Amino acid sequence: MERLVSTRVNTRSSLACLECRKKHVKCDAHQPRCSRCMAYDKTCQYTASRRGGLDRAALAERRRRMANKADGQLDNSLSEISVAVSDEGINLGDESVTGTDCMEVFHASLPVPTPVPVPAPENRDTPQFSQGGLTDDALVKSYYADFHHLHPYAPPYKHLVHLSQASTFNFSALIAAMRLIGHIYDTHQWSESLSSAVEDQISQLKSSDAVQVQARLLYSIALFWYTFKAEAKEQMDAAIDVAVKLEMHKQEFATTWGFGDPVMVECWRRTWWMLFIAEASYAGTLGTMNFKTLHVEPTADLPCEDSEYESGIIPAPKTLQDFDSREFDSEDVVFSSFAYLIGAVRCAAQVICMSPKRATREHSEAIIQSADSAFDAWLLLLPKDKKPVLKSDGTIDELMFQAHLLIHVPLSDLRFNPVEKVSSCAREPPADTPKPDLINVHTTRILKSVNAQIQLLALPVRPFHHTPFTTCMVSEGTLALLSACTYMLKDQALAVARDQIRLTIGCLKADLAGLVEKWGVRRDQLRFRV
């Protein structure tokens, strides 16, 4: 355990030269030129040390930045973060529509942040921060404004400020991870210095400190969507190992580690379940069968509603046993959106674990029937209040949006379309086709699922701002519809389906165009031709 937790991620050493960092390869850090630059006759440069002060050129540049920031200082307080939404519309006139894959759609067009006023003219890409200065930390504010509601497991902002000042917990590593993600949303760039700060803070935590699970999980998500997949897996594996070792999945953990604070008790419950959801999202996005947390028997209570969590008024929790026996309740018992998302992920997780790497006819039939039963049960037992994703105030229930989108991911047994080969979301086609009667039933299910996805995408809410993991779900639906257009649909049905594909891709292009900018994923991973 000690070895697992204390080992730092060393594949991106701060001593690596700029050329090796750019290529994301290991660097032996030999000076004046590393071995790789020597072999390829490249210019080898290293980032100047931040510990030894600034040279004259750097000082001059810093003074220039300070002057520019002082001239452009805004009068409004740092507590208000404004964004400018660019609505460019959707151009569907061209028959050839180029789409983006789930591994790059998260970089498409979210609202572009306007400059945020900074109280002191300092470089915001610096890893130094104090827990007492959270109220003035623009990057932490950016994290809470843009990302927190997508994966709401960290302490609510006001509570984090209070706990940090009270020194009850050492949240330095978690705050460092928040600052990295806030920086990505704020500048649309990865920061080596902030990344190194996260690793430094994690390495200083004790092996028994549960905060590192929160920090590693957040850092892993940032790495994953910035294409550092191996490092993301390393952080995720370490977070899971620590969580299981500490028995975070058990009901007693949250109470023990909450130290009588209801918000922190709820926070630990959310941390375990978000770890479970994130690992399932990795497996679904990459098409892998690795799913450690699914094989752990959890007794952790279910999270409450996000609004209750943010308010600090935490109700008595419901249990997983309550959720699994909800069909026997004499009257409708409404669980939280987080709980229904957990239920949807558990349905999908069972399908993932049932799926062999290459499915035969028998496997396909069993998987389809099991998945249809699980997903139908989830939908049929959904209370009336939880069926609409669009809330009465016109905002989206983000966790229910994720749950509905996941439930409607089509497990396609339509004929394999060659275009699917270029998508990282596509799966290998089955070696055998299922029986004709099963194909007819499941084809209806697929098209119904795709239609449900399109209705979610067409909700009148902009900007289209969701967790990046939803993009792979949308891509799978679009790929299934492409196959239906190629091999099955005709006449009016074909025309409608083609319009639906244009809508889906147009939505991803128009509304998620800035996400590619933010998370730096390649644009060449998927091309659709309708």
How are the strands of the largest sheet arranged? 1-2
Mean pLDDT: 73
Give the oligomeric state of the chains in this entry, treating copies of one chain as homo and distinct chains as hetero.
single chain
The total strand number stands at 2
- Estimate percent helicity: 40-55%
Largest sheet: 2 strands, antiparallel
What is the N-to-C order of secondary-structure elements (H for helix, E for strand)?
A: HHHHEHEHHHHHHHHHHHHHHHHH
Can you tell me the overall shape? globular
β-strand percent reads: under 5%
DSSP helix count? Answer: 22
- Class computed from helices, strands and strand pairing: mainly alpha
Parts with pLDDT < 50 across at least 5 consecutive residues: 1-13, 50-56, 69-124, 412-416, 434-439, 521-530
GO molecular function, one term: DNA-binding transcription factor activity, RNA polymerase II-specific
Keywords: Metal-binding, Nucleus
Protein name: Zn(2)-C6 fungal-type domain-containing protein
InterPro entries: XnlR_reg_dom, Zn2-C6_fun-type_DNA-bd_sf, Zn2Cys6_DnaBD
